[in-house]
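Structure request: Peptidase M14 domain-containing protein, Gossypium tomentosum.
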Amino acid sequence: MTNPSSGSFLLFIVFQSFGQHGRELITSELALRILSILSEEQFLPKMDRASLNGTLENVVIKVVPMENLNGRKLVEAGNLCERRNGRGVDLNRNWSVDWGKKEKDYDPYEENPGIAPFSEPETQIMRKIAISFDPHIWVNVHSGMEALFMPYDHKNRTPDGLPSQRMRLLLEELNNVHCHKRCMIGSGGGSVGYLAHGTATDYMHDVVRVPMSFTFEIYGDNTATLKDCFKMFNPVDHTTFKRVLNDWSAAFFTIFKLGPHQIDVHSKAAVSSMDKWVSIDEYFDGYLMGRRNRYGKKMEVLEVGMQEIRTYFRLFLLSSVLLLFMFCSRISKTGRQIVSAIPI
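Returned structure:
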């Protein structure tokens, strides 16, 4: 995408999180498939490589493949219904927007919000990444049903105005092309049948001001019993597993392609997100990579790396001099004569 006023290329920034709930194993599998395609280890059926490279030319993507590592370990150890982290907290209830409110059907095993907003290290890390990365699109990937949700989770409605309309248009395109019109579309709170408080997507929308904030539910088996969590949240046969990964990988690449066109940088509604656009030159001149040393001078990552190399080299020289000094001192104390082994 180009900025019409300057003609320079602009970067479109996407932030994706997978594996927020331990039992939703399929979400991290999708993350790995997307990363494999981005690295050109695999390709989607009917995917044109030239078109793919063109789509990705001005897109910056950050992927968190498994947000809830300790919860995943509990599931792999046999607790197949565990969704919380290792401390028993639901990471998708630990964010600050409307945190701690409990509905009548509140289940602490399912929705424990923690002792305070951002009490968990996982949400602290995700918040820090989100604020520094400042994306145009946020996607929080879950399983349990097939749905494409936009804010709000804690209200029975969607946001007002043009940005909300643009989010819905993009979701309708994904539903038609990749979800085969099976996916539910709307606000999380208005579509699921219950309100969720302290969620990541509501925080991204209200606090980080991400223009497009989504929650995707990529798979669910409504024939599974409540005790059969693995089947409820994850495909159990190879054909379904492959279909889910192919359909939703393609959906994400559609986002990479269409997303920049859904955010109008000249519209009044998008003025607040104008500062999210950055030229490629600015990006490589220090955007996301800029760091400051102890004197407050801005340095590139490359410069920091060269400084570290110089430091290591100086330490090597110093240690060499010290070893030589110790060796010479020892020889002088013993008074031994060194005889050359090579005939002169």
